[in-house]
Amino acid sequence: MQQFAENIETEKKFDIAKIRHDFPVLHQEINGRPLIYFDNAATTQKPVQVINAIDEYYKGYNANIHRGVHALADKATNAFEASRTAAQSFIKAPEAEEMIFTYGTTDSINLVAQSYGRAFIDQGDEIIISALEHHSNIVPWQMICQEKGAKLKVIPVLKDGSLDMVAFKNLLSDKTKLVSIVHISNALGTINPVEEITKLAHDYGAVVMIDGAQASSHIEIDVQKINCDFYALSAHKVFGPTGMGILYGKRNILEKMPPYRVGGEMINEVTFEKTTYNDIPYKFEAGTPNIADVIGFKFALDYVNEIGKGNIQKHENELLNAATALMETIPEVRLVGTADNKASVVSFVVDGMHHFDVGMMLDAKGVAVRTGHHCTQPLMNEFGIEGTVRASFSIYNTVAEIEFMVEALKEIIAKWK
Amino acid sequence: MEIKDRATKDIETIQQEIIDEFEVLAGDRESTIFYIMELGQKLPELNEDHKIEQNIIKGCQSKVWLTADPDKEYLHFSADSNTEITKGLISLLIRVLSGQKMDDILNADLHFIEDIGMGRIIGSQRSNGLVAMIKQMKLYALAFKSKQK
Q: What ipTM describes this predicted complex?
């Protein structure tokens, strides 16, 4: 049955010309050259379907949701909740109520750290993260550890940028209360074995959180298969609007967690003596949410579903393979992060050149890449480097663009030598 | 190596020279960046002893070390960075301000940066860094001037 479903997906047509046409921002010149956008790990561009949806909401049915009795409020509420259902099916969560709208992955992680962490982490407990983590999956846990007298343990990375799973097994103990791991590394592209990590952590009774910020646009996500307790993602990394994201949590865990931010919407009944809280997910959604962007998010997910994750992965693997092969022909270039299981990201350093200089020269040629530590300073320290140049590819990128970047890079290096 | 020579031209004259030099590049971003990087390569290296935390300019994305040496009412600057573009930018500032009178440094209106369209060439983040460098150079001038009084 699964094989049958996969066949249907790959039979969908991957029409790169149409896809590129859907993204208005791509059609411009930078320094007199066509823009090549390779900063997708920072944020993806938005298709016209998402832009129009937000525009239509403000023009046609802007209203505050949930308690209004008028027609506009009803329409806005329905569109808002339709987004929740779309997100639920996007990550294959069992129930829509387990999907909490947040401001993004960082906010989702903070919610778990501040609500679950404060309630259930005690002195002497241990939280495990990995050396691949983005600062947003380090600092919230550091804070809670400091507050509670708990200990933060870090799974080291191997030379190729994959996690040292032997070390992970050794870190696990009865003291481990929570494991929070990135699904795909933003800096290196490494895809972590989250299913295995979850299983190992669960054997010790620990709760598992997965940071899916980078994974959302690249690979199929199935939270039931992973069996993680929390999964976080950001809309803007998957062709949706900025300032909005998702926290998935298993119902039984979310129900026992206290509210994290309080105010309107999240209450059941308020008197000056006592307040009772609303049910999930509203218990965690205090205040008027980011309605327009939540509505826009559904259109981003629909867009991805329409193309099909199978097709996306196939296309992005082609890009990654082409980029890796071409970059390896430049002797001055060293790729950082070469794990077997990798998403479409190439992080690299150039001998004798600072990554800022390389990035700026590439930008002058119309190629947008990211340079620096990518909010993963501890990871850069592990590799003994200050930062890298990172080119990250998405559905609208082409092999021709990669070839242009590689030629540009060769030119820059030759000129500078 | 430290630049100890007093400036032979005033700030305004040097600014105009730089503006003229950049005009040749006709606003082409790639050539301009490359030119700035080349200027950076020519900047005398700062002694490793000076590359310490207290000489780092805060507000720059790349690492920038700046030292100042007073010589009566004159002030000499030396600086270095870990990136070539930033080194190039500092070399321009040093060329304009180093060896000038402290008063002139304090009162300098560094219009050449805007005149050559630096913001467009190096982007807003590096422009902020450039502002931080100028601020630090003026702070040195102010500090040494008040010490002399």
A: 0.86
